[in-house]
User: Which sequence fits this backbone?
């Protein structure tokens, strides 16, 4: 198995950081944290659009911010402003990585780790959607939504405007990056960064107050490497708090949030990054250029799901097609082409990306009323993998997870394939003839599982909760 390649856009960021011009260390008035780490991920999204033809950088919607801020003034027992008690271990995560367990929402990313340390832990969630404390069985859980929304109100008061300085720096970064970024991309990055720069001090103040009450020693923080909360990470380190990031999805040599050039190893920029990444397995750390430790821990939710009794492969009747939000027309055509060629005993199950569910009827209207096609919007993809014979996608973590469930995996060819999947799953689907060939193999039961070149333990480290506990005992 060959090492995955690095996409041109990611390489352009690394080249800039390896040159390390002084502007990368520049700050905006009112902030002690350089702007570059706070915008580099937005640049990577814009470069993805050039490399793959997708991803747009968008500024927050002011109307939604106003409505959310007004709601935040209402009292809530789960608001983090009421958090109390000493919690040596804090989890700071999004509220979107959840699934339903016995009628309650459980965070599959860190829920098992939190519950195993319930007596000394607390969970702080962004975007909890009102779920708040009931998201976990044992561990105290608080929402940070109110802090963010109230901060949005404070930004409307008279204050020095950071946006002109932010725009100047963003334009200078764009000039130095060796890639043909469009003016509209650069201005979108500047607009979003200007808003976050104005919002940041107020959010930081609110979260700092929570941290000072909980006094954690370690914060396990989702998306800590992405840069959006670089100022908050620096504030944590000023309090001698260790900041650790748990892997939440696909990572590899082309993921800009986990690959950095020489400048990011300099102390002024290095302090904006987590100290360590806890990965699903050894495979995911291969080729990363990260200036810190990479420790395989595992994925407990998947480990538990795989261990449960499931339908034998030869009795499954679903063919699962997973979306990666790219090439929606081609994805739709693939679903319909499979449906046309497969026998009636098979069901083609299309699973949209979570971000597409609100626009499902717009993007995939041609799939919603087709006999033999089912749209899967369930909260837990593992429920779908347990009934799937084969899984087809472009560049999704689900493709790798499917191996653990014994599914046959096929990858549709796209500009992303060399950078996200390489030759792990063999040849890619390039034509209608390839689709017809796969359909024939499914119909006749002739599908054969080809070795992926990666062992199960390399991709998914076993005993995840035990590993986390062992790691925790040596980290305090």
Assistant:
């Amino acid at each position: 198995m060959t090492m995955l390649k690095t996409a041109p856009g990611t390489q352009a960021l690394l080249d800039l950081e390896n040159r390390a011009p002084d502007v990368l260390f520049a700050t905006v008035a009112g902030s002690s944290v350089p702007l570059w780490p706070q915008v580099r991920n937005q640049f990577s999204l814009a470069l993805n659009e050039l490399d793959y033809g997708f991803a747009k950088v968008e500024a927050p919607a002011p109307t939604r911010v106003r409505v959310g801020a007004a709601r935040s003034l209402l009292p809530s027992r789960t608001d983090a402003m009421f958090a109390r008690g000493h919690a040596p271990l804090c989890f700071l995560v999004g509220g979107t990585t959840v699934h339903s367990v016995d009628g309650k929402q459980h965070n599959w990313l860190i829920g098992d780790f939190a519950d195993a340390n319930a007596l000394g832990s607390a969970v702080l969630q962004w975007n909890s959607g009102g779920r708040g404390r009931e998201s976990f069985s044992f561990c105290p859980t608080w929402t940070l939504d109110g802090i963010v929304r109230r901060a949005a109100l404070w930004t409307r008061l008279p204050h020095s405007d950071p946006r002109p300085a932010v725009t100047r720096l963003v334009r200078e970064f764009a000039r130095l990056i060796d890639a043909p970024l469009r003016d509209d991309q650069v201005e979108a990055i500047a607009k979003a960064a200007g808003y976050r720069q104005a919002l940041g001090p107020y959010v930081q103040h609110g979260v700092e107050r929570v941290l000072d009450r909980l006094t954690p020693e370690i914060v396990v923080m989702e998306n800590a490497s992405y840069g959006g909360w670089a100022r908050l990470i620096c504030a944590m380190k000023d309090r001698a708090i260790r900041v650790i990031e748990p892997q939440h999805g696909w990572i590899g040599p082309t993921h800009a949030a986990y690959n950095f050039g020489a400048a990011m190893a300099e102390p002024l920029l290095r302090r904006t990054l987590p100290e360590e990444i806890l990965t699903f397995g050894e495979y995911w750390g291969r080729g990363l250029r990260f200036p810190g430790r990479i420790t395989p821990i595992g994925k407990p939710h998947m480990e538990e799901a795989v261990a449960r009794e499931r339908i034998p492969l030869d009795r499954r009747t679903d063919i699962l097609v997973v979306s990666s939000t790219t090439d929606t027309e081609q994805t739709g055509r693939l679903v319909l082409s499979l449906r046309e060629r497969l026998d009636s005993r098979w069901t083609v199950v299309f699973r949209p990306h979570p971000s597409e569910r609100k626009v499902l009827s717009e993007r995939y209207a041609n799939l919603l009323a087709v006999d033999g096609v089912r749209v899967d919007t369930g909260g837990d993809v593992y429920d779908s993998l347990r009934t799937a014979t084969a899984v087809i996608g472009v560049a999704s973590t689900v493709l790798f997870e499917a191996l653990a469930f014994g599914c046959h995996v096929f990858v549709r060819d796209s500009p992303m394939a060399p950078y996200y999947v390489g030759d792990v799953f063999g040849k890619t689907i390039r034509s209608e003839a390839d689709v017809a060939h796969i359909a024939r193999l499914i119909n006749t039961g002739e599908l054969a599982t080809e070795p992926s070149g990666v062992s199960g333990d390399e991709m998914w480290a076993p005993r995840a909760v035990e590993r986390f506990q062992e790691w925790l005992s040596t980290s305090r």
Notes: The mean pLDDT is 88. The CA atoms of residues 95 and 416 lie 28 Å apart.
